[in-house]
Specification:
heterodimer; A: Elongation Factor Tu (Ef-tu), domain 3; B: alpha/beta; 6-stranded mixed beta sheet; 4-stranded antiparallel beta sheet; 19 helices
Chain lengths: 128, 579
């Protein structure tokens, strides 16, 4: 018991090296995870669905072939894989497979880029 | 005028102790800082996880963040272990350093200061105040600083998430904290009152416990019982008031907290339902609100506690400022050849208006047994204490063998002058260890000799372990006579040229007193001795006596003559005139 307490005081309390190594490991781990994990940056826009096409005003450069559509964000968001993206007359057109239940004006989230988890936490406070 | 400490000067005062454990404090701070960063990052991480899975069914990202979340949570737990290991170490070592300094100061503190200070105050300074210093450093410096950073960061994040929520929370939370602080103070005041009265009650109980025998003798049980009941009634009344106040204050605080919480959550819920913020962000807001409230509360508590802790630090600071024996100017070695002691025009008072000696003159010849008598409180003991340098005369000089006492070092004074008083200091340890206080390096033969001379031999022989028998609270108890003999044995070993006996035998029965007087005779050969006594038997051992009255020596003479010729002497010892 005395030996244990001596070791405890020596290595946990008095020797800072173990503490600093542990702290450093934690910081490195945190930075490694948060800098390597990339998250999609999503932009919410108004869209229109017509003939298997989602049409959005403005030319939006997307970084993913996935588009999220919904009429109410808090109910259900549909994850749609696009076939093709076209920019024409100041509009962005997503060509998709047949989708039932949606017609006319909807909301869409498009991926306009990516950012690290670190940036999302410390710069954007969790906002996309 | 004494310096009044504030927040900054308190930090400055404590910094010398922080410096001793700089490395540990830095480790502790880094640990807390990183933990604070994690505590801010984790709710955000959790919010992101929710958004990724709820809205975008992004399972890969969700799992990756979850793994990170779990790993960092485990890391945080282990980090807590390290931080608290440091905390406990610092708490022990830091307070130990302060206690050590207080104790050292106490040892050399001016006797007048110590006689003015109450024991309770000194114990509180040593035990409680030193602990509060550490709490001040940890809670009022380190945590306060971290909490400020935390509030600023969380406030910025709330504004980034939603400026409306940011404004709402930043207005609501201080109002809540104000209510908290206002009622919290009321609760604290009642708590203080409770503690204060409890302290008084405990002191009274201690007093009663130590005087149980006297209470029985005086037949004061009924009065004591009544007082006990009164004390409890008073405590009960304070407790009731405190409880009602606490319940009311707690309910008001809880209601206000709940109201603000509901308002914020409803507003955040509205923003989430209208699509302005995500569910993940709502989770972050809820978590940050909790953090913000706790941090604000921590800061407001820290503010109130700081005032109380600064008062404790002030106590230590003031104690350290009190004059010590280091201020004693004498540096010369006191060399006693004959043992002539003279007080020349000595004046002394404890405080203005309470004059103890006024131009006192007294001469004690070498090798003389001199009795100093007088009514209680006339200054006999003060005179003895002046001789060993515990008090110094405000006017006049004490001269020993032609050397001014004020020019001599305290060490040499105390080496050459021994004192035996009524209460003999007995440490927990063996008889031998207790006797060795007189001379650390005494041989076994010397110990045996002094035991014989002081009349301890028979007693020691009756013990199975002899001089190695443990005495004190951990061992066997000693009678008053046995303690006196140990004191004489110590004086024998110390062998000072001048010995003062201050009421040494006043608590002993006649038979024991006689035996102790026999032991004195051996030790006093070739020495100057001053016997302060209330008992005629002790005075009659002396060659000369002086009666002290109103700060002056009113009469001197041979006790054998004074007994028949001096009316003051007769009055003092209640000697009946022969018919």
């Amino acid at each position: 018991m005395k030996k244990f307490s001596n070791l405890y005081v020596k290595y946990i309390i008095k020797t800072p090296i173990i503490f600093y190594l542990f702290l450093l490991t934690g910081i490195i781990m945190f930075l490694y995870f948060s800098l390597n994990l990339r998250l999609d940056v999503v932009k919410s826009v108004e869209a229109n669905i017509k003939n298997n096409r989602i049409i959005i005003d403005g030319e939006h450069k997307t970084y993913s072939d996935i588009i999220y559509i919904y009429s109410n964000r808090n109910e259900k968001i549909y994850r749609i894989k696009t076939e093709q993206i076209q920019y024409s007359y100041g509009k962005t057109i997503f060509f998709i497979d047949n989708i039932s239940g949606f017609y006319g004006d909807i909301q869409a989230d498009i991926v306009i880029g990516s950012q690290t988890l670190f940036e999302r936490i410390f710069v954007r406070a969790g906002r996309s | 005028m004494d310096k009044k400490l504030n927040y900054i000067t308190s930090i400055k005062f404590l910094s010398k102790y922080i410096g001793k454990h700089k490395r540990n404090f830095i480790m502790f701070y880094f640990g807390w800082f990183f933990n604070m960063v994690l505590s801010i990052a984790m709710p955000i991480l959790f919010g992101i996880m929710i958004d990724e899975i709820v809205y975008y069914q992004n399972l890969d990202t969700f799992i990756q963040i979850s793994v990170m979340f779990v790993i960092m949570s485990v890391f945080s737990c282990i980090l807590y272990f390290f931080i608290y290991a440091q905390h406990h170490y610092l708490m022990s070592m830091y307070t130990f350093d302060i206690k050590k300094d207080i104790f050292k100061h106490m040892q050399k503190c001016d006797a007048q200061h110590m006689s003015d200070a109450s024991t309770g105050d000194i114990i509180t300074t040593l035990q409680r105040s030193s602990g509060e210093c550490m709490h001040f450093v940890i809670r009022n410096i380190i945590h306060f600083f971290n909490n400020i950073i935390r509030i600023v960061v969380i406030a910025i994040y709330l504004f980034i998430i939603s400026w409306q929520i940011g404004v709402f929370i930043l207005i609501a939370v201080p109002i809540l904290v104000f209510i908290n602080a206002k009622f919290g103070k009321k609760m604290r005041d009642y708590g203080d009152k409770q503690r204060e009265y409890y302290g008084v009650y405990i002191s009274w109980v201690f007093e009663i416990l130590s005087a149980l025998r006297d209470i029985r003798m005086l037949g004061a049980q009924q009065k004591t019982n009544k007082r006990f009941e009164e004390n409890h009634q008073k405590m009960f009344s304070i407790n009731i008031k405190s409880s009602i106040s606490n319940i009311t204050a707690n309910n008001i605080i809880s209601f206000a907290t709940l109201f603000v919480q509901l308002a914020i959550f409803a507003f955040a819920g509205f923003l989430a339902s209208s699509g302005n913020i995500t569910i993940g962000l709502l989770t972050i807001i809820v978590a940050f609100y909790g953090e913000l409230i706790a941090t604000y509360r921590g800061i407001s508590n820290s503010y109130f506690d700081a005032q109380m802790r600064i008062a404790y630090i002030q106590r230590i600071y003031d104690f350290f400022q009190s004059s010590t024996e280091d201020n004693w100017k004498g540096k010369n070695e006191l060399i006693i050849t004959d043992g002539n002691v003279s007080f020349e025009n000595v004046s002394f008072s404890y405080n203005k208006g309470n004059i103890v000696f006024d131009n006192l003159n007294l001469n004690i010849s070498p090798n003389e047994r001199f009795a100093l008598v007088g009514k209680s409180g006339c200054g006999k003991t003060t005179l003895a204490y002046m001789l060993i340098g515990l008090y110094s005369p405000q006017n006049g000089e004490i001269i020993i063998d032609g050397q001014k006492l004020s020019n001599c070092s305290l060490k040499s004074i105390r080496q050459n002058i021994g004192i035996v008083d009524q209460s003999v200091l007995i440490f927990d340890g063996t008889i031998k260890e207790n006797i060795l206080l007189g001379k650390k390096n005494a041989t076994d033969d010397e110990i045996e000799f002094v035991c014989k001379q002081s009349g301890l031999s028979e007693f020691i022989k009756s013990l199975s372990s002899g001089v190695d028998t443990v005495i004190g609270t951990q061992g066997i108890g000693l009678s008053g006579g046995q303690k006196q003999r140990i004191a004489i044995a110590r004086i024998y070993l110390k062998n000072p040229k001048i010995i003062i006996f201050d009421e040494a035998t006043s608590a002993l029965d006649n038979e024991t007193e006689e035996a102790i007087h026999e032991a004195w005779k051996n030790v006093l050969i070739g020495k100057t001795s001053i016997v302060i006594a209330h008992r005629q038997s002790s005075v009659m051992l002396c060659e000369k006596a002086a009666i002290l009255e109103n700060g002056k020596i009113c009469e001197t003479g041979m006790p054998t003559k004074m007994i028949s010729e001096s009316s003051a002497f007769k009055t003092l010892f209640a000697i009946k005139e022969a018919d």
